[in-house]
Structures are given as structure tokens and as C-alpha cells.
Amino acid sequence: MATPTPKSILKKTPVPSTIRSDVVAINPGPRATTGTKPTPSEARAIALSHAHALQIRKALELSILMSLEELVDFPTPAPASSETSMTHHDTPALKLHLRYFQPSDYDSLIHERNILKLCGYPLCSEPKKSKATSNHVLIDKGLSTMRFVPRAKLERFCSDLCARRGLWLRVQLNDEPSWLRGDVLEGVEVGEKGEVIGLDLEGVKWKANGGEETMVLLEEVERRKEMGIRSAVKEGDLKKLVQELEGLGIESKGILDGNKKPEVARNGVGFVVDGKEVPTKQEPLTFTIEEKEVLGSAVAPSADGLAAGMSALAIEGYKPRKGPEDYIPKSKKPQ
Ligand SMILES: [Zn+2]
């Protein structure tokens, strides 16, 4: 890192137990099958496989950390001979660095950039938002969804546009730690001295296998849309993004909607579910509101009516007794 950094809070990826269960699953030792003590050679094999898995994990964590350090200083200065390119000149490098990231690593990146007062989106060089004075900000004021959101969460990006772009990258990241991913571990070995061999740290294999296509930037999607090309984006990722944005009170309508119509209802017919218009068969209903015709005039209740029927004394249809004489059965009353 070239710039002087304030106190760093780089986190280690918190996945403590997964590696163990995974290794045991790959190498089900005698413990798992027979319940007896493993022989010394079996115990050694188990210990070695644990150690190897840890070595691979350490190598990948270091790679993630180095990528994180690089991305904190993104975007890099534009090359001198820069022609107006379709995408940002750092796009390929960004995708390369993010290939081993989990969402939590990306959060750390945003946090690190925010410490440097930079917008959380790695391709933006603007300073991050900082307007609010309190720790929590009230959003959706006056609506049923009105709530407080932590200020730090709202101010991670310089603008709503960068929030959309930045969070779109995040939802595309793999939740699975890189050291458990099958494609990453393919052909990887640990040598006699604990050196990890065959890890694609330069991203050569990744590039050859079309790795750049597995992640698509929002800008790329928008540009392709302008050219009439639809991008293959996962519905699940889209839902996650909309959820994230709604949590921040940021407008998400129209994002990546392609040819879909996000407007609610057209001519009052049909409604929108997940950005798709669901047509209704019926024509819109027509209502006429008419006032009821008044035939008589209102009459106030009179005291005579009350005495006659005693209906006013009845409680839910039952007339309470007045005195002790009412409790003597009529047949036993003195004549
Ligand atoms: Zn920005």
C-alpha cells in the first residue's frame, strides 16, 4: 500500500470449523468407519491431510489479503495511451482479484476503502458519502417501511449508483470459501516441505476457463443492454441485490430488467411480480358511487316508548329483576 493507512482492521476469514469436517469427509479414516484407534500410519495420513488442507487455505488467504490490499488503492491511474474503452481499464484486474473473495472479504474491502474516505466501489475514485451527523439515519420517513439504518452502512458508497454497482458485485461472489471450492483445488498438491503446488495464483487457468465471464459488472450489463444484447444474470443474484438496496432505501426498480417492464400496472390492467408484468384477464372494473335516497326524517326516541317495552333496561335481550318479589315464584305469591 502506498498511502499511509490508519489502523487497519483486516480480518481473517472466519470459517474455523469447515476445513476440518471437509478433510474428514474427503478422507474418511478408520475412526469414521470402525470406531477403533487408527494405526500409526493411518493417523499420520490423517494428520498430513489436515496439514495440507491448512497449507492450501493459508496460501489462498494470503492471496485474498494481497488482492484486498491492491483493491484498496483502486482505481489505478488510466494508462497514457487510453482510448475510450467500452469498460473501465481496471475491470479485468478487478475480476481477477475478486475470484477468491467471499462476501465477507468484500465487506472488509469496502470497510478498508471507507477508512481511507474512499467510495466502497473499487472502480470509483470519489470520496465516500458523509452527510449524516448521528449514528443512525431514518429512511422511508412516513412510510410503513420507515426504519433506522446504521449510518456507516448508508455511507459506504459515494452515490446510489455506486451502491448499486458495488452491491451487485457483492451478490455475485461465491459464499463458499475458496479453499473448499472444487475448481480451485483441482490439481493442487502440497510438497514435502509444505509448499503448495498448482494453485492458480496468477489467474492463468482461471482466465483460460473463461473466469472473466463468471462475473459481470453492472456497467457491462447496461452497456450490452444499450447495444441490444441481453446479459445472462442469475435471478437469485438479482433478488439479493434488490433486497440489499431496499434495505438501504435505494431505488432498485429498473435494474437489469432488460425488456421487462418494471412500471407498476399499465392502464390499470395487470401488475408486476419480480419485474414481470402479470396480465389480468378482466377489463378494469368500473364503479359508480351513488348517495342513498332519504325517504323519512329522523325521530328522537321518546320516554313513553321506554316505559312500555322496558326494552331500554334489557341487557343483551335479558331484562334484569327489580327487587326480592321478583325472585318469588308467581305460584307461591300470596293471593
Ligand atoms: Zn463511487
From TrEMBL:
Subcellular localization: Nucleus
Catalyzed reaction equations: O-phospho-L-seryl-[protein] + H2O = L-seryl-[protein] + phosphate; O-phospho-L-threonyl-[protein] + H2O = L-threonyl-[protein] + phosphate
GO CC annotations, alphabetized: cytoplasm; nucleus
UniProt feature coiled coil, ranges: none
One Pfam family in the UniProt entry: RPAP2_Rtr1
Enzyme class: hydrolase
Primary localisation category: nucleus
Keywords: Hydrolase, Metal-binding, Nucleus, Protein phosphatase, Zinc, Zinc-finger
Domain of life (superkingdom): Eukaryota
GO MF term set: RNA polymerase core enzyme binding; RNA polymerase II CTD heptapeptide repeat phosphatase activity; zinc ion binding
Its EC number(s): 3.1.3.16
Domain RTR1-type per the UniProt entry, residue ranges: 96-182
Family, per entry: Belongs to the RPAP2 family.
Protein's job: Putative RNA polymerase II subunit B1 C-terminal domain (CTD) phosphatase involved in RNA polymerase II transcription regulation.
UniProt-recorded name of the protein: RNA polymerase II subunit B1 CTD phosphatase RPAP2 homolog
Organism listed in the record: Morchella conica CCBAS932
